[in-house]
Amino acid sequence: MSNTHSPPPTIPPPQNNLTNAPPSDNPKDTHETRLTRGRKITQILNVKLPCPEANTTWDIAIANTNNNTNTIASIKPHNPAHHDPVSSSSPQTLHGNKALLLPSLCHPHIHLDKCFLLSSPQYADLAIQKGDFAEALSLTSSAKARFTAPDLRRRGGWLVEESIAAGVTCMRAFVEVDATVRFQCLDAGLWLRERYRDACDIQICVFAQDAVFSGDGAAGEGRALMEEAVGRDGVDVIGSTPYVEADEERMRANVDWAVEVAMRWEKHLDLHLDYHLDGRKEPMVYYVIEALKKKGWMQMAGRKTIVLGHCSRLTLFTSDQWYDLKDRIGDLPISFVGLPTSDLFMMGRPSEPKEGSERVRGTLQIPQLIEEYQLQGTFGVNNVGNAFTPYGNCDPLSLASMCVGVYQAGTTRDAEVLYECISTRAKAAIGCGNRNALEAEEGDEADFVLLNTDAHQGGRPKGTLQEMIYDPPRERSIIRRGHFVHVP
Fold it and tell me: For residues 466 and 472, what is the distance between their CA atoms, to the nearest angstrom?
């Protein structure tokens, strides 16, 4: 039987390696990158775009702007008769063969330092027994006492490379700073940021997982270390976890401190918040909004974004409470980040007498927040391969596919929103983009992922964004700033 399907996009061979990383203290133990930066691309021919004209294909021209950034110069309907044979055969031309061209992916929330602990032999004795949050904190604290620079770089390298291979070109990476690890995780994160800067923007968030106002002297030391860390070159965000404090007074102190430090250094703010399902407790989100307004966030020069992660308590809200929250937020640049893989694993565990009969989801209904309540929202991978989230991978598109079921979101519009949440909305939430829509526009940075819509070996074709969300393809082509990124 003849093959009538279109071939995959024609990809030029690799040209040069990614940025050389700083030398390792122990080269034998340091992860060696497999990524290479490919040829520059100046035009992409015959690709589909996520727009209503499903049968139309397009040509994209890419040009270098005055600030030395490769951006979209033009978007025109594909017409082979108008192509110059010389430029069409140039190595800088990509023949898309009706592949679906989409904006690249983004991790709005991912932990770089504690990934893949369950895959590393040196932590084999720290196996999950109960699977609850207290155990996850305990196991992770024990693991942190064993962290080394080569180990952090190796595991972090796995996460970054698997993410880039999936199409991620931007991520907010959390690295913990406390009395145990001090600056080890931060140093590894900055090392990885530099190593992969040609393939991915790694936005470093220094993160206080442990209490900074409760307990013994370690809390005060951790707070001082965090304040030193946030001033380091290459740090973009301060993050904290108010709910780990001993009581509400110290939770509020944690919020006040994080807001003040973020404003002092003009950093983005990222809070893990309201990670419980106790309807008797007032949500801390109200106090966060009050503190941001009282301290003058909107008057800060170079205004930064605010991200609130988890927020499982808010899943108990009525519609009236959501509309009230929308009014309270007003113009504050707040985005909510759902973390469904972790939330589903941790939240809604039944008491022992109920066994498995009652399990609520406990994860924010992000599409509803966006569509019905007009709030800014996205969702992310969070953790991979540790006691907080032992399952899943680094692929946001696979997460979006899972969310079809989690959010019961199966329509064409749902598919658009789900993809926005792992791409444009995610970038906007962390300050790496300025709009939510998927449609490409002139002036956009040339960061793309190409998904083949036609099975070139006689298999089942996938022609629409909706189908890509339902069943994500494994083969993808990644373009970063107008250059191919090659992953063997």
Answer: 10
SS3 state at 341: helix
Distance, in Å, from the CA atom of 359 to the CA atom of 350, rounded to the nearest integer, reads 6
Tell me which range, 1-15, 44-58, 69-83, 385-399, is most confidently predicted by mean pLDDT.
Answer: 385-399
Extended strands (E) in 230-374: 235-240, 268-273, 306-310, 334-338
How far is residue 110 from each of residues 57, 267, 405, measured CA to CA in Å? 35, 18, 22
Question: Which DSSP letter does residue 473 get?
Answer: -
Alpha-carbon distance of 313 to 278, in angstroms, equals: 7
Burial class (CB in 10 A: 0-12, 13-18, 19+), 443: exposed
**Residue 479 CB neighbours (<10 A):** 27
* DSSP-derived 3-state class of residue 129: coil
Q: What distance in Å separates the CA atoms of residue 137 and residue 391, rounded to the nearest whole number?
A: 17
Asked if 309 and 258 touch (Cβ cutoff 8 Å), the reply is no
Q: What is the pLDDT of residues 9-18, one digit of tens each?
A: 554 443 434 4
- Cα–Cα distance measured from residue 342 to residue 382, given in angstroms and rounded to the nearest whole number: 7
Residue-wise burial string across 303-328, b where 16 or more C-beta atoms lie within 10 A, e elsewhere: ebbbbbbbbbbbbebeeeebeebeee
- Cα 451 to Cα 77, 88, 431: the distances in Å are 19, 21, 26
Q: C-alpha angle with apex 54: 50 to 56, nearest 5 degrees?
A: 100
Which residue matches tokens 């996205």? Answer: 378
How far apart CA 144 and CA 161 sit, in angstroms, is: 22
Per-residue tokens: 441: 């526009």
- Residue 128, C-beta contacts closer than 8 angstroms, at least 6 positions apart: 118, 135, 136, 139, 387, 390
Residue whose token pair is 């680094």: 394
State pTM to two decimals: 0.91
- The end-to-end CA distance of the chain, in Å, is 31
Q: Reduce the DSSP state of residue 26 to 3 states and report it.
A: coil
Instruction: Give helix 285-294 / helix 319-329 axis angle, nearest 10°.
Output: 20
Which amino acid makes up residue 124? A
Quick one: DSSP state of residue 487? -
